[in-house]
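Bumping my old thread because nobody answered last time. Still need a sequence for this structure:
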């Protein structure tokens, strides 16, 4: 499936609400193999979460990682083989403290400041993201960012020119 097309569809819903600006300048075509509805839930949950916490802007990047040579790629001391798609959803909101970067993927976990606002959500969206991404052979993490939260999803990609 074309992950970039799925992203464009979901971003249009965010743009239609008009609450935040969405920057798609870092969007590249990438294909992944997976369950379309489950992957749509990943994208929707990440975008909804970013919209809920952003002050004014969300940046969405999608790009290929790895070259399929078997040499692998990685970050944070982890090496993975094969081509992948990396999705990054970054917002200009308050960010996620380093002490909460793994906990945010736990069911029903909400950062205290988010509980104090009428922000909706019950703390399941990011747990769903984690479950779906790992069931597709990928991983998800929160990276540090000077301007807010930055959520990364890495999924195995279909090499360009290959059949799904």
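Sorry it took so long. Here it is:
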């Amino acid at each position: 499936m074309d992950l970039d097309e799925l992203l464009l569809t979901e971003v249009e819903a965010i743009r239609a609400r008009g609450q935040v600006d969405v920057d798609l300048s870092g969007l590249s075509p990438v294909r992944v193999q997976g369950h379309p509805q489950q992957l749509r839930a990943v994208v929707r949950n990440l975008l909804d979460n970013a919209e809920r916490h952003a002050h004014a802007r969300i940046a969405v990047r999608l790009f290929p990682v790895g070259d399929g040579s078997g040499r692998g790629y990685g970050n944070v001391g982890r090496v993975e083989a094969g081509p992948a798609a990396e999705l990054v959803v970054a917002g200009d909101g308050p960010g996620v403290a380093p002490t909460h970067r793994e906990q945010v993927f736990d069911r029903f976990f909400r950062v205290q400041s988010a509980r104090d606002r009428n922000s909706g959500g019950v703390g399941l969206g990011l747990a769903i993201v984690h479950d779906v991404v790992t069931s597709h052979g990928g991983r998800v993490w929160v990276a540090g960012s000077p301007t807010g939260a930055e959520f990364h999803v890495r999924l195995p990609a279909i090499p360009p020119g290959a059949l799904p």
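Strands lie at 21-27, 31-32, 57-65, 73-75, 78-80, 84-91, 139-143, 150-158. Let me know if any region looks off to you.
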